[in-house]
Amino acid sequence: MRASAGRALVAEALPVMGLATAGLAVVGLLVVLGQALAAAAVAPAPAGVLRLALGLSPVVLGIALPVGLLFGLVAAARSWREGGDWLALAASGGPARAAAGPVLVVGIVGGLAVALLSHGLEPLGRREAWRTLAVAAGDLRLQPGRPVVVGEALVLAGDVAGRELTDVRLAVGDAAVAARAGMLRGGGQVALEDGQARSLEVGGARPWTLDFARAELRLDVMAPRVELADRTDAELRALVARQEAEGRDATAARLALARRSALPLALPLLALLALPLGARGLNPGPATVATVLAWWAVLRVSDQLAPAWGPAAAAAAPIVALALGCGVAWGSWREGGLWPGRGPRGAP
Questions:
Q1: Per-residue model confidence (pLDDT) at position 41
Q2: What are φ and ψ of residue 298, in 5° steps?
Q3: How much is the pLDDT for 200?
Q4: How many alpha carbons lie under 13 Å from residue 171 in its C-beta half-sphere?
Q5: Angle at the Cα of 143 from the Cα atoms of 140 and 148, rounded to 5 degrees
Q6: Alpha-carbon distance 136 to 46, whole Å?
Q7: With the C-alpha atoms ordered 98, 100, 103, 105, is the resulting torsion angle positive or negative?
């Protein structure tokens, strides 16, 4: 009876969990995809946009899955409260804590999935996303009469035939360039013919003019980014070893590596916390948002304290805070599944 009660609760939570995770993932992917395209020097072709979306998907899913899991379990626990299931479980001699076993299994499975994302797919996806944007910027494509911003340069061509340009205009810094013809090359290079470069009057500087028969310019396209979040676990360990061998501070790299295990380890606790939150009758939306914001606040504070505490303690701080919150919630939850002074809907 006790085990079947836990399985029934999980079965009720899974559809809500899946819908919430999918909805958050779609919305989150649209947001981060829009931000990446807005910051890109040159928007990639449709195939490049698809690769960019695939690369960013593990990043978004790694956030959506824990939030969806929490939302689904809180919603199911609240539904049990309103339907009197917790009271029925208590009347049959089964404490509310009997449902913890299957819920804990769900949290562990979710933690393993998030660990796969954070330790494997996410850094690889991030790198592929930035590589896609860099390739699009290096393989510059222009449309007739449509200006394009590449780095700090504004490029405009009157006519475009493949890579051949006619009536080219560029503005870079405090200089403007006009050329009769041009040719696009890889790596953001532009070859110009029969043109003139002149300074723009900025800050009273002395103007100048330069005529040329042929000139080659390299536009400042975006280079592939390799930040801490983009590195694999092996690369982060190698970076830590190299920085420490050179006598440099490796706290940031160590913290980035430890953070990849923080959320997976916390997910079983998050799943357990959902039961008393829902059993108290809290709305799943506000309860989920409040829990996520509290986790984020502790995370940011511990990041600032990492130099003093050390990377391991800073990474463990959110897990400890979550464990304390979970202990308080379960400690104040009565055996019958109800909270002091509160009963199921319709009960006195």
A1: 61
A2: -65, -35
A3: 75
A4: 8
A5: 60
A6: 11
A7: negative
